[in-house]
Each structure stands twice: as C-alpha cells, then as structure tokens.
Write a structure and sequence with these properties.
mainly alpha; 3 helices; rod-shaped
Length: 98
C-alpha cells in the first residue's frame, strides 16, 4: 500500500475508512485467488477425464490382444490337427523340420 494514499485516507476519512479500504483490497485479492483455484481445479478434472479415457482405451486394447492370442492359439491347434490328418498320424513336427 502506498504510504501517501494511506496517509490521505487516514487523515480524510479516519481509521474506519482505512480499515474498510484494506478489507476491500483483501476481498479483491481473495476473489482473484478463488478464481485461480477454480481454474486449476477445472484443469485437474479435465486431466482426470483424459486419464479415464486412456485407461478405457488400454483396457480395450488388452481385451483385443487377449482375443487375438486365443484366436492364434485355436488356429495353431487347427493347423496342427490338419497336418496330423494330412501326414496320416506321423509326427508332424519331425516331418515339418524336413
């Protein structure tokens, strides 16, 4: 607070006016801090929403990878069974190595 302004307020309007001015200054600063906190809170909420979206995408990817692994396993068993039939019961791994 400027000393000249404080002196003028003190002499012209008295101590009550000075205290009122100080209170109003604090209220303005408090409102400014409150606005900054609300903006920061909104950003945090946005980041949480983004994190939830990423988590859902990762879960979906994990499910797709699991399904694909099962499909490849079934395909491998099917190809193995087909080879066994084609080779007439002989050891397909030994034949496949030739």
């Amino acid at each position: 607070m400027d000393l000249t302004l404080a002196t003028e307020l003190g002499t012209q309007m008295g101590t009550a006016a000075l205290l009122g001015w100080m209170w109003m200054s604090e209220r303005r600063a408090s409102a400014r801090r409150e606005r900054l906190l609300e903006e920061a809170h909104a950003r945090v909420l946005e980041q949480c929403a983004s994190a939830r979206e990423v988590a859902r995408a990762l879960d979906a990817t994990a499910v797709a990878v699991d399904r694909n692994a099962r499909a490849v396993d079934r395909l491998d068993r099917g190809v193995g069974a087909l080879l066994a039939r084609m080779l007439g019961g002989r050891d397909q791994r030994a034949e496949a190595a030739d």
